[in-house]
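Lab manual, section 2.4: Encoding a predicted structure.

Procedure: take the sequence of the chain (285 residues), apply the prediction step described in section 2.3, and record the output as C-alpha cells. A sample record is shown.
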Amino acid sequence: MKYIGVHISIKGGIFNVPLRAKNIAANTFACFTKNQRRWENTIYKDEDINLFKSNLYLAKIIPSKIVSHASYLINLGSIHKTLREQSKIALINEIFRCSQLGIKQIVFHPGNHLKLISDSMCLNYIAEIINEIFDSNNNNVDLVIENTAGSGGNVCYCFEHLAYLIDKIKNKNRIGVCLDTCHLFVAGYDFRTKNQYEKLWNDFDAIVGMRYLRVMHLNDCKSGLGSKLDRHESIGKGVLGLMPFKLLMQDSRLNDIPLILETKDQTIWHKEIQMLLNFSKIEPQ
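Recorded output:
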C-alpha cells in the first residue's frame, strides 16, 4: 500500500493537522511540532495531545505512518560547540514531543559546516551527538536523516555521506534515511528514465542499504541536474517531469513508507495526491 501525504501546517494547534490531511485525502502527513524557526521549547497540554490522537483516529491515519520534521535551526555539524549543544537539546525536546504525540519518526537536516571544516569532520560531529542522544534516551522515536541539495557546506548530499554517518552511529535500529527527489536531482542523481531510476536504487542499496529508507519527500524541481539549488516545484511541472513519480508509485519497495509532498501550491495538493494514486495503478511505459 502507498502512503501519500503532505507537509501540513500546525497553525491553530497541532491537533488540526490530521483533519487537514483528511480533507485532501491524504493517508499520512508530516508536520513540525513547534515553530521551526525559533529555539524556544514547546510543551503540549494533555488536552492537545488527546485531541491530536483523537483526530488521527477520526481521519483513519495510522500513527506509525506519520512523521515529524525537526526545526530548520538544528545544526548538529556546526563548527561551533555551543550551536551543536543547542541543537542537541532541541532534538531531545523534539523526541519528547513526538513521544507524547505517538509520532515514531523525526526527519532532520543533518548539518552544515559552511565550508570551514571537512565533510568528514562535520559528519563526525553529527554522529557523536546522535550517539549521545541515543545513549541517554531510551525513547522509541527514531531519527531519519534527510539528504540535502549540497549547497553551502551541507553534508549528506551523496549516498557516501549517508553511509559514513550511519556507520558511525552505534544504535542502527533507531536511524533511517529520508530521500527528497528534488535534493537527489540537484545533487547530481538523474533518475528520469527507467534505467536511471533502477541505477539510483541499486546504488543506494549497495552504498547505504534499502533497509534504512524510512521516508521519501516527493518534489519536482525548478533547478537543473547537479545545480545544488533547492527549488521545489509541483509534481510534473518541473525539470523532473512525471516519469520518476510514475516509477516511484509503481515500485513495491516503497510500499508502507510515508511519501510526503513538499510542493508549494497548496491549492492542488489534493490533485497531486490523486494523480500519484492513479500512477500506482498504471504500469509506466
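Check your result against the sample. The chain has a mean pLDDT of 96.
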